[in-house]
Amino acid sequence: MNDGTIFVTGGAGFIGSAVVRHLVLGRGNRVVTLDALSYAGHEENLAEVENAADHRFVRIDIADQDAVAALLAEERPAALLHLAAETHVDRSIDGPEAFVRTNVLGTQRLLEATRHYFAGLGSREKERFRFLQVSTDEVYGSLGPDDPAFTEASPYRPRSPYSASKAGADHLARAYHHTYGLPVIVTNCSNNYGPYQFPEKLIPLTILRALAHERVPVYGDGSNIRDWLHVEDHVSGLLAALEGGRQGETYLIGGENERSNLEVVRTVLGALNELAPAMFDYRDLIEFVPDRPGHDFRYAVDATKLRQQLGWAPERDFESGVLQTVGWYLDNRAWCTAVTNGRYGLERLGSPT
User: Fold this and answer.
1) What is the set of active-site residues?
2) Its pTM surpasses 0.70
């Protein structure tokens, strides 16, 4: 899909900016990034493509249907990857309304603008256009320690305001496919990590707290389990689904790296011991704190469908991926300062989602 413009909503966020950088720098696509620049979206994430001729940034709220419609008519994209979302579970517990507004209402208005745009395309343009709804494994609920991993056939059982809002967005996207014929593909991924992740999430927060010689909080006893997916492996999975996936289908993207939260934190702190040794063991900074409400025990996804049908596979194991990620944060402390910029303190706990 190198011959058409691609829209990326939420393209100044963690995963979205990784998609944009890959498309522009790695593949030579023309990309229009749409982002409202809320607390987790920052133009600093797009510094590498700031002067690229094939990239345009537009500050826009996806809930502004008229503005989105005008931009679609102006740029006439061949595909739209929808990553704009509120994503932090702790924040959704504190203030669920913002999640409903962006993830549900915003997605509906984006779909509606796209539906009208799609209806006006010629037959060849319609044939190639795709709307990729990027979602999370959290919509499927929680697994027990011995339960099989989620598959595309698993029922939706969201258990937090965040996952419920993403479930609503997924249902709307599928409804627009079945009702209006919009060529929608849905992906659900496991926990992402890697460069440019906002410092409220577990891995970057662990790094920054440890470097500041502060206590590193772990919810409960740290036994909750997640499957971890490097963001660059996620990007390759998204593009595999976009280019080879069948419209109306769902594809799960997982890293095949199940770890308990305590194992994750210890791995990160062990990498810090190696790359930025101090006069003490960073792992001694771990502090167990009261669990959060409704904390899901385990997420894991079975990516067999994406592997078998589209030939995708993750390339990074967790330990080497964490080592690379820790190295990036050590080399980019100015980025951390720039994106937090006094608006976000490291006193919040890091979400393992």
Assistant:
1) 137-138, 162
2) yes
